[in-house]
# Entry
Amino acid sequence: MDIAFWTQQKSSVMKKYLHIIIISFTLFLLFTNSINSQSGWFQENSHTNKNLYSVQFIDTNTGYACGSGITIFKTSNGGTNWINIFNSGYDTTNLNSIYFINTSTGYAVGGGVFLGGVVMKTTNSGLNWQYQNSNTSNYLNSIFFLPQNSGLLGFAAGNNGVLIKTSNGGTNWYLLTSGTFLDLLSIFFLDSSSGFTVGIAYRCLLTTNGGMDWINFPTQPIPPQSQDFRSVIFFNSNTGYICVTGGYGSNNPYCMYKTTNSGNNWILQQPGGGIAMSFVDVNNGYTVGGLGYIYKTTNGGTNWFRQTSGTTKNLRSVYFADANTGWAVGDSGIILKTTNGGGPIGIRPISTQVPDQFYLFQNYPNPFNPSTKLKFSIPLSRGVPEGRGVSVRITIFDILGHEISTLVNERLLPGTYEVEWSASDHPSGLYFYRLESNNFVETKKMILLK
# Structure
């Protein structure tokens, strides 16, 4: 009788513990999936440890990346699989920029000790690549072709102020006179006449006659520190951006410059900036840089918001195929992808009036289903320059205290902001949201009812 009783009790206890283990494991999976679903950028397997310097996509499925050792990689399924389609074996030579003008024809440029300035071309979607005579021994850093000219008119920029041009698809390249011996890192053309190039020591040049003559911009933008201009893009003859950084892995602050009057005046934008940029349109853009930095703007650079990349490796190139789908590449073969624009930042300034204190408002609506808005105020902090802003973090917790989402993790200027949280993937219940900045911490409750 006693043996049967204790056997029954032991079985009951074991079932109870097994039930607890199953519930705990289920909660762990739900929690893990919840955390992963909040991540805007995720890592893809490039199958290489080589540094990647440039990435471009033809559409959301077909893309190319190039890097050290004159290596070129291709994906035909949006980055799920990357295949090494070219490997020269020259470990001291890099490919720094890749540019496809259509699904078949593409170019890549770089340089190395033995090969000098490298230009390569494919006419069969990367299946075969041919070296072209670059007519220079200087390393090339950037290439750009004008698709409206049947893909025949192209330009490349490189070290020691070198600029080259082709009007026949690279069959012949000839040298242009830039007027500088500083390294040029990026080149961009609006049409066959108007072009721009930028480089180290904030070198900034333009041409209005197809590259025959180059002059400094009407007003030279001067960064806050001795930094380099890494990338340039113009949307029309008036509006353009320059991406600025202090160097790979540098702690110097990144910044952006924007002009809306053809370079006669430049607006300094911080934070933001970095090693490379990609714009979906004149208002929506991204920059990447050292230590895994990714910034996003949705209002033409008036505000830049830091996104979580999940890596501390240097990111050297970024490309968006549409408003939501983009890739970033960098050191040690790192390839990141987003399918939701880098994550729901959903943050916007609603007042530039400087508050006199931190304040976290009650969310509205509350209760809510499935989304709600969180409003908060950031004052000017003692000892912090007004133009620099302070570190601000807003996080969401479930009733068990698990952090399930980070809505804000940026440096913000003084003002009042609003951020939206969508809880469509979460069950009904009580949630908490917390604001942290400097020594200020405040938490409030909100209720999700479905």
In short: The chain is about 10% helix and 45% strand. The longest strand covers residues 403-412. Residues 13-39, 247-252 have pLDDT under 50 and may be disordered. Residues 1-38 form one domain.
